[in-house]
Design goal:
The strands form 2 sheets. A 4-stranded mixed β-sheet has the order 1-4-3-2, covered by helices on one side. It has a 4-stranded mixed β-sheet with strand order 5-8-7-6, covered by helices on one side. It is about 15% helix and about 40% strand. The mean pLDDT is about 85. The protein has 2 helices and 8 strands. About 15% of the residues are buried. The longest helix is centred in the N-terminal third of the chain and has 11 residues. With about 120 residues, the protein is of the alpha/beta class.
Length: about 120
């Protein structure tokens, strides 16, 4: 068998109940640049990944993990914008080389899970 070499994720699809409310929330609250919309579809840029929102009832949600350089600052900024967090930033894993993986979960405007994540070099 021939191995497949996958590259970075280019787009993530996420169903939503209300496309206009979702477009505003992802654009205004999360500050993801809006690329374009048509009909019941909207596209935002998130770093190198395009977020594809489609209005089709909001079922089958996937969790999106947004990389941030400073998880505590990102959480504070989003909380000030009214984002509902389900937990505080916390370390989920420490690699042998001292690199720490941190996450913090929150909800979008329809109550579905999202997360911010950061890698932090341990000072110890």
């Amino acid at each position: 068998m021939t191995a497949i070499a996958f590259g970075a994720i280019g787009q993530i699809a996420r169903p939503v109940k209300d496309i206009e409310a979702a477009r505003c929330w992802y654009g205004d609250v999360l500050s993801l640049p809006h690329l374009y919309s048509f009909g019941t579809l909207a596209f935002h840029q998130c770093g190198e990944v395009r977020l594809f929102l489609s209005q089709d009832g909001g079922e089958g949600a996937s969790i999106l993990y947004f990389r941030v350089p400073d998880i505590h600052a990102a959480r504070d900024t989003l909380a000030a914008r009214g984002v509902a967090f389900t937990d505080a930033p916390h370390m989920i894993h420490r690699h042998a080389d001292g690199m720490e993986e941190w996450m913090c979960f929150f909800q979008d405007n329809e109550g579905r899970p999202l997360a911010i994540m950061a890698q932090v070099r341990s000072s110890a």
